[in-house]
Every structure is written in C-alpha cells, then in structure tokens.
Write a structure and sequence with these properties.
The chain is mostly helical. It has one domain. Helix content is 72%, strand content 6%. It contains seven helices and three strands, in the order E-E-H-H-E-H-H-H-H-H. It has a three-stranded antiparallel sheet with strand order 1-2-3. A hairpin with a 3-residue loop joins strand 1 and strand 2. It is globular.
Amino acid sequence: MKARCVVTTSAVTYDSGMVARSVGVSFVPILQKIEATVGEIFAFLVGFVLLVLGGDIVYFARGSTDFAWLLPSWMIAVLLEGAFLWKLKTSLEMGHYPFAPWFALKLRRWPLLLRPLVAAWWAVHFLLGSAASMFLENLIVANAVTWNVRILRCFIFVGVGLTVAYSANLYALLAITASGGGERIVRQVWRWRIVLDLGIAIAAACFPLIVRSK
C-alpha cells in the first residue's frame, strides 16, 4: 500500500481590486486580525460612551422645553448606533482584510441629503476616539514617577494607542465615504494612515504638557 500525501492551499480573492479575502486556511497576517478585532472592541466603547453622554444630556434636560426633542433624538441615536455596532460585528466575522477600508466602502451608499449628517456623525466618533487617546496617554504615562516605570508604560501606551488609532482611522474613512469619497480616496488615506496615527499620537503626547502650562 502506498501512502499518498495531499497538500492543500488557500485561495485568496479580491474585492474591488483592493481588499483581500482569504478562503480556507488564511494567509492573512495574524496581526491584521488582532488589529481589526481589538479595534472593533474600542469602537464598541466609543459608541457606548457617546450614548451615555447623550443619555446624560437628556436626563439633565428633564423639565425643560428641549426635553421633548432631545429624548426621541437620543432614542434614534441608540437604535442607529446599535445597528452600526451589529453591522460592524457581523462584517468582521466575514474575514475581509484590511478591514477598515473594506467596511467603509461597504457603507458608502448614503442618500445625498443625508451625507452631511452621516459624515458629521462619524466625525464626532473620530474626535471622541482622538480625545480618548489623549486621556489614555495622560492616565498611563504622564503620572509615572521613575523613568523605568515611564518607559514600561510607554510600551503599554503604544499598544493601546495603535488600537485607538485603528478605530480613529475607521471612523475617518467612514466620514470620507459618507461625504461621497470613492475607493481611490479611501485607498490613499489608508496608505498614508501612519500620518494620521502620528498626528493623534503627537497630540496625545503634547496635550498634558499644554494643560500643565496653563
């Protein structure tokens, strides 16, 4: 009896000539999967914080004339954010990488009249993510006493910062596609996303110094 060895490989398909999707055994770097998954977790946190802040505004507006429109507006925001997070989860499970540009292009078909509103909504998410990076830098690094502890915390901040930057990039791409940006613009922004990441990191590092100087 002769033993036969069968070697199987994985096929890779492409969506819109840009995003690779693995079939079978994945050849996609594990780092991209971890980056997308952890980025999704932070995106959930951003959405949750936005809804909590909106809920606080509605709560403190009780008894005022603004409560009549703030409450239904907040409830609509809860439904939309919940639908987005569910779409984000199910899309991530489809295994498209790099995930952020593919997901942004997938959600770009908005009616013309709604584009400014949707773009502003994603821009708020982006700004909140950037602000979270500044807060985390101050929390993790700035209060360290010795240089040894400070260096260790800097490494921790790099890992956290990459996660925050990935989520910020995702929201930036969503704002671009909601404004009518096509695949070419998304491709260029994603290719040069390191500039955006560095901008967020520098702003996060300088923010505590600016606050202390005042």
